[in-house]
C-alpha cells in the first residue's frame, strides 16, 4: 500500500538473492527509510543553487521555508506558521531557548529521567553551574507519572519544564501531557520534545500553541533524513536568546541598531548558515503525502495494525525475551509510539538477541539492556513478523 513510496531504500536494503532470510528493517524509529521523492529533492536543491547562486537565499527564505512552516502548522494545528523556527537539530533550538534565561539568576528546570541523551547530557553540564537546579521526575510507574509531574510543576518555582511526548527509550506516550501544559504556571516556559511523536501520532496543538515550545524534526517518522528540525514558539514570546546568529537579524542587515533586536517571528530563535538540502527533502515528502492524501492519522492506524499483528505472533511464539512481561508499555491501544521496547534484563542479553535477529535478517537497535523494534508504513500489509521469532 505504502511501499511504493520507498522503492529505492527497499531495493537498496534487500537481502542478496541467495540469502536465507529477506531483510526486515525494524529500526524505523532510529533511521526511517526515505521516500523516493527525496532523491529528486536533493538534486533540486543543487539545481536551485546553480541557477540562483547567492540569490538562492531569497528563494529559500521567501518560498521554501514558509512552505515548510505551513506544512508543519497544518500537521500540528498550529495557528501561526511564521512562529515555527528551524535549525539543523533540536538541541540547537533548545539550548538557544535556555540561553535566554538570565545567568545571574536562579534557573530551575523540571524534567523527567527519561529524556534523550542530548538534553540529559546538557542538563548534567548545566548542573555544574551554581545557579542551575534540575529536578527529574521518575518516568515510572507510568500510571502515576502525569499526577507526579503536574504536582511538582505547581509546587516548585520552575523557570523551565521539559518533557517528551513519546519517551525515546520505551515508546510510551507521556499521559495527559498536553493537559498538563495547558494548565502550567504562567511563570514557567514549557517545552515538549515531539521527536518520536511528530508524523507518527496524530497531534493537535491548537489548544496549547500559545503556551508551549514544541520541538521535532524530519529524521524520524517523516522519513526525510537528518538536518531539519523545528520549534514552535508561543505567542507574545519576548525571550532574548544569548545564543543568536546573523539569521536572527536578516530583516535588519541594512539598518543595524546598537542594541541587539529580536523579531516577533521565528527569527527570534534563528541561528546562522545551514545546509538546506534537508529542507527540500522534508518539503518534498510533505507535499507528496498531501497530494496523495497520506495523513498522520492513516499512518498511525497502519502502524497500529502492524503492531497488533506483531503482538499476536509474539504471544503464540512464547519467546524467552520478546514477550509481554518484558515489553515496556502503559497503554498500547491509545498511548504508544511506533516502536516496542523489550527489557532484556542485561546489556549482554540484548546484544546477543540483536545479533541473533541480524542473522535472521531483522535489523533493530538497542539501548543498553533495552531492545527496540520499530514499525513503519513501508512494512507490508501482510507482514506478521514471524521472522523475528523463528
What this model shows, in words?
- This is Selenocysteine lyase.
- With 390 residues, this protein is of the alpha/beta class.
- The chain folds into two domains: 3-31 and 295-389, Aspartate Aminotransferase, domain 1; 40-289, Type I PLP-dependent aspartate aminotransferase-like (Major domain) (Aspartate Aminotransferase, domain 2, 3-Layer(aba) Sandwich).
- The chain is built from eleven helices and twelve strands.
- It has a seven-stranded mixed beta sheet, sandwiched between helices.
- Strand 5 (160-164), helix 7 and strand 6 (189-193) form a beta-alpha-beta unit.
- Helix 3 crosses helix 8 (277-292).
- The two termini are 26 Å apart.
- The mean pLDDT is 96.
Tell me the layout of helices and strands.
Layout: H1 7-13, E1 24-25, H2 37-52, H3 56-76, E2 84-87, H4 90-98, E3 107-112, H5 117-126, E4 132-137, H6 145-155, E5 160-164, H7 177-182, E6 189-193, E7 212-217, E8 229-232, H8 277-292, H9 296-317, E9 339-343, H10 347-359, E10 362-363, E11 365-367, E12 370-374, H11 386-389
Parallel strand pairs: 1-10, 3-4, 3-5, 5-6, 6-7
Antiparallel strand pairs: 2-8, 7-8, 9-12, 11-12
Helix pairs in contact: 2-8, 3-8
Key descriptive features of the protein:
single chain; Aspartate Aminotransferase, domain 1; 390 residues; seven-stranded mixed sheet; 35% helix; PyrdxlP-dep_Trfase_small; PyrdxlP-dep_Trfase_major; PyrdxlP-dep_Trfase; 2 domains; alpha/beta; Aspartate Aminotransferase, domain 2
Structural class: alpha/beta
What is the share of helical residues? Answer: 25-40%
Q: Spell out the helices and strands N to C.
A: HEHHEHEHEHEHEEEHHEHEEEH
**Mean model confidence by pLDDT:** 96
Beta content: 5-15%
Query: How many discrete domains?
Result: 2
Distance between the termini: 26 Å
Amino acid at each position: 500500500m505504502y511501499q511504493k513510496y520507498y522503492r529505492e531504500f527497499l531495493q537498496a536494503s534487500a537481502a542478496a538473492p541467495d540469502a536465507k532470510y529477506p531483510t526486515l528493517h525494524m529500526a524505523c524509529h532510529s533511521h526511517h527509510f526515505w521516500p523516493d521523492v527525496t532523491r529528486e529533492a536533493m538534486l533540486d536543491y543543487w539545481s536551485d543553487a546553480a541557477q540562483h547562486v547567492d540569490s538562492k537565499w531569497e528563494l529559500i527564505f521567501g518560498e521554501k521555508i514558509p512552505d515548510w512552516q505551513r506544512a508543519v502548522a497544518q500537521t500540528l494545528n498550529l495557528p501561526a506558521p511564521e512562529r515555527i523556527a528551524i535549525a539543523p537539530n533540536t538541541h540547537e533550538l533548545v539550548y538557544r531557548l535556555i540561553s535566554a534565561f538570565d545567568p545571574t539568576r536562579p534557573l530551575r528546570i523540571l524534567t523527567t529521567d527519561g529524556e534523550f541523551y542530548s538534553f540529559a547530557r546538557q542538563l548534567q553540564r548545566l548542573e555544574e553551574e551554581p545557579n542551575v537546579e534540575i529536578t527529574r521526575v521518575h518516568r515510572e510507574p507510568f500510571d502515576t507519572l502525569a499526577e507526579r509531574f503536574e504536582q511538582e510543576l505547581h509546587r516548585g518555582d520552575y523557570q523551565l519544564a521539559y518533557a517528551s511526548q513519546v519517551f525515546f527509550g520505551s515508546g510510551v506516550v507521556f499521559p495527559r501531557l498536553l493537559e498538563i501544559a495547558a494548565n502550567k504556571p504562567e511563570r514557567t516556559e514549557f517545552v515538549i520534545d515531539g521527536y518520536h511523536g511528530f508524523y507518527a501520532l496524530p497531534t493537535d496543538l491548537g489548544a496549547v500553541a500559545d503556551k508551549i515550545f514544541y520541538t521535532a524534526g524530519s529524521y524520524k517518522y517523516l522519513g526525510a533524513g537528518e538536518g531539519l528540525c523545528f520549534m514552535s514558539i508561543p505567542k507574545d514570546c519576548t525571550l532574548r536568546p544569548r545564543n543568536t546568529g546573523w539569521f536572527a537579524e536578516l530583516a535588519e542587515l541594512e539598518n543595524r541598531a546598537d542594541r541587539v533586536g529580536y523579531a516577533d517571528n521565528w527569527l527570534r530563535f534563528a541561528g546562522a548558515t545551514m545546509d538546506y538540502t534537508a529542507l527540500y527533502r522534508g518539503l518534498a515528502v510533505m507535499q507528496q503525502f498531501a497530494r496523495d492524501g497520506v495523513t498522520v492519522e492513516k499512518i498511525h492506524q497502519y502502524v497500529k495494525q502492524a503492531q497488533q499483528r506483531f503482538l499476536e505472533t509474539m504471544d503464540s511464539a512464547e519467546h524467552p525475551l520478546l514477550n509481554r512481561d518484558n515489553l515496556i508499555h502503559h497503554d498500547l491501544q491509545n498511548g504508544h509510539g511506533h516502536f516496542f521496547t523489550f527489557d532484556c534484563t542485561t546489556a549482554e542479553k540484548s546484544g546477543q538477541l540483536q545479533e541473533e535477529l541480524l542473522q535472521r535478517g531483522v535489523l533493530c537497535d538497542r539501548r543498553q539492556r533495552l531492545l527496540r523494534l520499530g514499525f513503519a508504513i513501508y512494512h507490508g500489509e501482510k507482514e506478521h513478523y514471524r521472522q523475528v521469532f523463528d
